[in-house]
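Fold this sequence, please.
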Amino acid sequence: MLALLLTVMPLQADRFKDVQVQHTELAQDLYMLTGAGGNMATVIAGDKVLLVDSQYAELADKIKAKLSELGAKAGVTTLVNTHLHGDHVGGNSQLAGGVDIIAHHNVLSRLAQDSKFPRNGLPNITFKQQLKFTLGGQTIRLDYLPPSHTDGDIVVWFEQANVVHFGDLLFEGRFPFIDTNNGGSVKGYIDNTQTLLGMLNEQTKVIPGHGQLTDKAGVQRSLDMMQATLAIVQGYKAAGLTEQQAIEKGLGPQWQSWHWNFITEQRWIKTLYHADVN
């Protein structure tokens, strides 16, 4: 058994060995960062560094190196978590332990119940509706949205730059994950997407939780997909088809490109089949 553990542990430690943290400049001192897990954003203003989301613990050193490359003179001084999932909060304790970690109240409530989550990575500043602060010439506004992906999702606006980080309220070009075990709702997700769409203009840069940097048109495409596929599956259900029969009929070729390894077409159909749309 010990020999097995010794062979497995290095494999786990090396799961991100080939991952490179990349950056895209969005405005002065404001960048989108990608690696593994949820997309990040950072504002670097001398000895003040804001990071939105923290990906996985194993990537902390690579993230720190990227921040230093971009001009950070110190470590992360403020970390914002868009929600509770491990690919967005896994690096909290390594990147921001002992400094300000901001999240919605529900994120703290859920993470605190996880005995395996490092205590020094728990959010220590929470809010219920909205929080605003300034850094590096940017007014940063955190808005809570009603339950949709989870029950603790926020979006992060960089007001002067006309940039917004959607967290997992947007899976760009992919079927989204609706985490009903953590308060998620298909109807809420669609409603929130409609609300946010009305807050964007044609120049707004939108950082999705997963996928490529996008814009208002990209958010509209996601909304169109959700509304259309929900109508298909609810139509199957109204016609008396079972879940399995709905899966077998599928969504048609128009939506094949939205299928991905985590939320496959089959899993998306199951989510829609059981959606409470009233």
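The chain has nine helices and twelve strands. Residues 17 and 219 are 32 Å apart (CA to CA).
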